[in-house]
Amino acid sequence: MKIIKLIFKNVLRHKLRNALTVLGIAIAIMFFGVLRTVVDAWYAGVDASANNRLITRHAVSFIFTLPYSYKEQILRIPGVSGVTFANWFGGVYIKPENFFARMAIEPDTYLDAYPEFLVEKDQLEAFKKERNACILGEKIANQFNLKIGDIMPIEGDIYPGSWEFVVRAVYKPRDEKTDATQMLFHWQYLDERMRQDSPSRAGQIGWYVVTIKDPSNAASVSTSIDALFKNSPAETKSETEAAFQQSFVSMSGAIVTAMNFISFVIVGIILLVLANTMVMTARERIREYAVLKTIGFTRGHLITLIAGESLTISLTGGMLGLSLIFPTVDGIAANIPSGMFPIFKVTPTTVVLASLTAIVVGVVAAVFPVWRATSLRIVEGLRQVA
Questions:
Q1: pLDDT in tens, 11-46
Q2: Domain co-membership, 71 together with 30
């Protein structure tokens, strides 16, 4: 108990210096948490991928389309339990900054492949019956204050022209990993328009979503699909949904790597800030440590005293930094388009990493002062001039 009192008294002996150290640690922990949240948001699509879904796309590039006729052929491959498809639509809703996924889908099968999209039965039926109907993710509906029956005008870019969609359903995410920022509408509505305006683009889809019976057979089923269309005008590349999502992350690999690197550089900065404070403290207290040894303080007492002070400063800054992470992330999330990072929130892993960082930094920063105090000879310490 006496040691604990001494620790707190030592922390308060240099109020300004230690307060600035705590503030520096808090700011660094906050930025560490924000950067980890951005990295987690980048990988959110990979983490949310289902292990029983494959994505079949054009072998050359994702931007090239595949024939609609492939669907029935894929469905006959052993191990396949279902096939649906989607087509990236793009377009501009109100203004270009309003980015979110807008995709043409097969209405009768798409949601069967994505059970994490929860749609009320009556809304789903209404969506299926109306050719220009659409389904919105809950976040998008809330962001733009859209309700069932509202009209969504979209100006096409990939598919030029003015398009009007009627909101007939709003899907809710099954869990926090589910993307609730998509807009889905009938592929037939798009295809009919293409048959009139651009016949060469009719009968084409973006990618197939293949549901398989046994996830352990993903590699063999993927190989069978690609072999089926080998040497055709539109060869395919099939891969797990996680691998497909990972390919998008890889396109921004340098950015993600840089953020990872910076987040750990911040840890080094925290260590230097606290270590500097503790080294200054140890130098000032050389005579004091010698006196403590003289009156009976053991090596263990000195280690507890010094490490306790370092950890108190570090953990105080860490807790303050953790409390700042959440409002900072919420503020960032409120000012970025929902579709850019569908899932942007502080994860438990980030909280644990930030907490461990504060603990480790507190321990490491105390190593040199502890060594200096415990190896000090009493006579040498008493000779020190404050």
A1: 777 788 888 888 888 988 898 888 888 888 777 666
A2: no
Q: 313 and 209 in one domain?
A: no
Q: Look up the domain containing 20 and give its range.
A: 2-45+253-383
Residues 6+ apart with CB under 8 A from 344: 37, 41, 329, 332, 333, 336
Provide the token pair at 221: 């089923």
- Could you tell me if residue 239 is inside a domain? no
Q: Collect all residues with Cβ–Cβ distance below 8 Å to 274 and sequence separation of at least 6.
A: 21, 25, 310, 313, 314, 317, 361, 362, 365
Helices (H), 144-217: 187-197
User: Please, are residues 327 and 28 in contact by the beta-carbon 8 Å criterion?
Assistant: no
**Which amino acid appears at position 191 of this protein?**
D
Total number of domains constituting the chain = 2
Mean pLDDT across the chain: 85
Nearest in space to 6 (alpha carbons), one of 308, 365, 316, 372: 308
pLDDT at 303 over 90: no
Look up the pTM and report it.
0.72
Q: Same domain for 74 and 40?
A: no
Is residue 243, in this structure, part of any structural domain at all? Answer: no
Instruction: Please report, to the nearest 10 degrees, the dihedral formed by the alpha carbons of residues 245, 248, 253, 257 taken in order.
Output: -40
Q: Which of 25, 191, 183 is nearest to 92 (CA)?
A: 183
Give the CA dihedral 185, 188, 194, 195, nearest 10 degrees.
-170
Q: Are 85 and 228 contained in the same domain?
A: yes
Instruction: Check residues 354 and 372 and name the one with the higher pLDDT.
Output: 354
